[in-house]
Amino acid sequence: MTDPALAAALERIRSAPDGPQVGAFFDYDGTVIDGYSAATFYRHRLRRMQVGLREVAQLIMLGLRGLEDEEDFGRLLTLGFAGWAGHSEQELLDLGEHLFAGSIASTVYPEAWQLVNAHRQKGHTVVLASSATRFQVGPAARALGIDDVLCTEVEVNDAGQLTGRTMGNPLWRSGKAAAVKTFAKVHGIDRRSSFAYSNGDEDVPFLLSVARATAVNPQPDLAAEADERGWPVLAFTSRGRPSLVEAVRSAAAIGGTIGGFATGIALGMLNGSRREGVDHGAVLGAEVGLALAGVQVNVQGEANLYERRPAVYLFNHQSQLDMVLLCRLMQRSFTGVAKKELRNDPMFGVFLRYADMAFVDRGDPAQARAALEPAVAKLRDGVSLVVAPEGTRSATPAIGAFKKGAFHVAMQAQVPVVPIVIRNSGQLMAPKSLVISSGVVDVAVLSPVPTTRWTPQNLDRQVARVREMYVKTMRNWPR
C-alpha cells in the first residue's frame, strides 16, 4: 500500500505543468540514498590503509566541533580531497561506478525513484544537486536517468590527476542554493513552479530557492522549518537493519519455500515423473514462501503467460525474490538460466540442478552460449525457458542493457518471447539481503512477440525493440 504522504507528493507532481521549464532538484545523500556516499569512499580508503593518523585526528576534531558554516564545510572537503591527490580522474570515475554498483545502489530509496520517475514522465528538468563530487553523484544520476548534476567540482591538473583541491565554492548551504538559481536562469526554468527535495538542516536555503519544497526524512532543524512553513514532509523507509518481525518472517518464508520445493519434488518422484515433481515443487514452494513473507503478487496480462507455450520468458531481474516470484507465475513446464555460482547454493542449488537449469559463466561468453544450446531442444519438447536478458540482477529499477543469448535461442527454436516486467521486487528484498518485506509486487506480462521473421542480421534491432517495451512499461505502468 502506498504511503499517503508519498501518494500526495506524486499527485502534486502529476498536477504540475508539463515541460522542461519545471525543475525538480533532488539532494543526494540522505534524500535519494539512505546514508552518505562519502562514507563508502572513505571505507574504501580505510580498507586499503590509505588514511593516516593525522587525517583521522583532524576528522575527529571537526566531527566533535560540528559544521557551523561554509568555511567549516570547506575545511572538511579539503581534508577529504587531500587523500585523493595524485590519483587520476579516470581512476576516481571508475571507482565511483564500482562503489555505486557494489554498495550504494542498494541504498537508493524506492520512494525517491518513484518521485524522479514521476517528474520525468511530466517532462520536467530533473537535477541531482549535491555537495558531493561528480564521482559520487554521477553513477546515481545515470542509473536514475537524470541528465543534469550540480555538485562540488574538484581540480584536475593537466596530467589528469586530482590536486586535492576544489574548484569554486562547495555546493553546501548557500552555495547549493546559488547553484540552483544560476542553473534555473541559464536553462529557462521557472523556480515558482519548481520542486526541491532534501533531508538536511543545511539545505533550508536550497529548498527556499524554489516554490515547492519537500522535506525528506528531515533532520531536527529542517523538520521545525518545514512545520513553520507548511512544507510537506516525507518519511522514506530505511534500508538499514531489519526489524525482528521482518527477520523472523523472512526466515520462515525461506524455510517454507525450501520445504514446498522439497515436498513437490517428493510427490513427483512418487508418481515417477521428474517433470511433474519440478512443477509441483515450483508451485508449492512459491505459494508457501510468498504467503509466509506476506508478499502479494498483482499481475496484469496474466493470460499472456499461457497463450503461446512453449516460449522464452524474459524478466528484468531486481532481487532474489524474483526466483520465487517466477515460480508463482510460470507454474508448469519451464526451466531457466542461472549464474554458475548458484549451482552449489546451499539453499536452492539442489532444486535448480533437479530442474535442469542452465548454469552460465557470466565472464565466459563462449561457455554461456554453450550452456544455452540444450535450451533449444527443451523448447522443441514443450519446456519453456525463463531468462533475465540483463544477465544479472540490476542494481536499481532501471532497465539495463540486454544480452542476446535468450533472443538467439528463441529465434533458433522459432518460439515467441514473452516480456515479464517486474516493477518493485527490489523494494521488498534489497540486493544482497535475505530479508523480505511484506507488500505487493507489481507484474505486467506483455503480449508474446513472434520471432518467425527474426534473422541474425536484424537481431540487434529486435533486441532493442523488446528492451524498449520494458522501458515504456516502467515509465507508463498500465493501470
Structure description:
The chain has 479 residues and is α/β, with parallel strands linked by helices. Helix 12 (274-293) packs across helix 13. The longest helix has 27 residues, at 244-270. 47% of the residues lie in helices and 14% in strands. It is elongated, with a radius of gyration of 25 Å. The strands form three sheets. A seven-stranded mixed sheet has the order 9-15-14-10-13-11-12, sandwiched between helices. Strands 3-2-1-6-7-8 form a six-stranded parallel sheet, with helices on both faces. It has a two-stranded antiparallel sheet with strand order 4-5. The chain folds into two domains: 16-234, HAD superfamily/HAD-like (Rossmann fold), CATH 3.40.50.1000; 294-475, Glycerol-3-phosphate (1)-acyltransferase (3-Layer(aba) Sandwich).
Mean pLDDT: 83
| N-C termini distance | 15 Å
Please tell me what the overall shape is: elongated
Q: Quick one: CATH superfamily of the largest domain?
A: HAD superfamily/HAD-like
**Low-pLDDT segments, ≥5 res:** none
Helix percentage range: 40-55%
CATH topology of the largest domain: Rossmann fold
Beta fraction: 5-15%
- Give a quick account of the main beta sheet: strands, pairing sense, barrel closure: 7 strands, mixed
Q: Tell me the number of structural domains.
A: 2
Which CATH C-level class of the largest domain is it? Alpha Beta
The value of Rg in angstroms is 25 Å
DSSP strand count: 15
Structural class: alpha/beta
Number of helices: 18
InterPro entries: AGP_acyltrans, HAD-like_sf, HAD_hydro_SerB1, HAD_sf, Plipid/glycerol_acylTrfase
Protein name: 1-acyl-sn-glycerol-3-phosphate acyltransferase
Organism: Spongisporangium articulatum
EC number: 2.3.1.51
